[in-house]
Amino acid sequence: MALVFIMMACNTDPSAKEIQNLAITKIYPTSDTLPENLLRLYIHFSKPMRTTGNLEKIKLLDENGQEVVGAFFNNVYELWDKEQKQLTLIFDPGRVKTGLIAHEEKGRSLQMGKNYQLVIGRLEDVEGNRLKETYTKSFYVSKEDRLSPNIAQWEIKTPKANSQSPLVVRFPKMLDHLSLRQRLQLTNKNNKPIEGQVEIASQETEWNFTLPEKWSAGDYILHVHGRLEDPCGNNLNGLFDHTVGSLKNEQEGQIETINLKIKK
């Protein structure tokens, strides 16, 4: 299990509220093997959380149990979504990207071939209820990922007309969870957006799109924003750790399209 729950039996605070249904529901990426140049993590909670004072309660520990100091970018404002249920942790970009002073002096927070633990303390929701347990995500670090997503390598399985089977897009490597929800859009042949349910599966290597009704036969278009990223910040336009002049397009945010046909 990459996600482990540890009950803290000591240091209890009788004045602090606890509630059973306040929990961490997911940590992305979900894989227990992550690349050395990982840029961000997402922590999902079951209830809206307080949005200040949390980073000091979240630690990255090496395989000797020692804290990796300065691993995360300590922004003035924590990065929460509108519902206050998703906290984004960003590894210090100055240490992730090569050629910068922080990288040269400190190196990356994650080192290939080593094991780490992300330890999340008893954070509080907006009502003052604390997480009942400390959570840890244990993971192993693999080599850096220096490959941009490439739609030519995607495997697409289209559903049959008059079915409610999902449209399935499979990727050769994991992509960023939030990016997958924001950077893919299915339309009809006239570019009218089609509403449906998105599910990210198979450790962020699969995008499933299901309609509330049956599919109609015809032509469809999958629009892919050029900023679709992997967890290391590499996008369709180039690498996060890119050199000057190496991007595919000088202007970020180009849209690539994939033509699809639903058959009877």
Short description:
With 264 residues, the chain is mainly beta. Helices cover 6% and strands 33% of the residues. It is built from 3 helices and 18 strands.
Overview of this structure, please?
This protein is mainly β. It contains three helices and 18 strands. The protein has helices at 93-96, 101-106, 177-182; strands at residues 3-6, 17-18, 24-28, 33-35, 40-45, 58-61, 79-80, 86-90, 115-120, 129-130, 134-142, 155-157, 167-170, 184-188, 197-201, 206-210, 218-225, 255-262. Strands 1, 4, 6, 9 and 11 form a five-stranded mixed β-sheet that branches. Strands 3-5-8-7 form a four-stranded antiparallel β-sheet, with no helix packed on it. Strands 12-13-16-15 form a four-stranded antiparallel β-sheet. The radius of gyration is 21 Å and the shape is globular. It starts with a strand and ends with a strand.
Q: Rough shape?
A: globular
Task: Give the ordered list of helices and strands.
Answer: EEEEEEEEHHEEEEEHEEEEE
Name the poorly predicted regions.
1-19
**Overall pLDDT score:** 90
Write the layout of secondary structure elements.
Elements: E1 3-6, E2 17-18, E3 24-28, E4 33-35, E5 40-45, E6 58-61, E7 79-80, E8 86-90, H1 93-96, H2 101-106, E9 115-120, E10 129-130, E11 134-142, E12 155-157, E13 167-170, H3 177-182, E14 184-188, E15 197-201, E16 206-210, E17 218-225, E18 255-262
Parallel strand pairs: 2-10, 4-11
Antiparallel strand pairs: 1-11, 3-5, 5-8, 6-9, 7-8, 9-11, 12-13, 13-16, 14-17, 15-16, 17-18
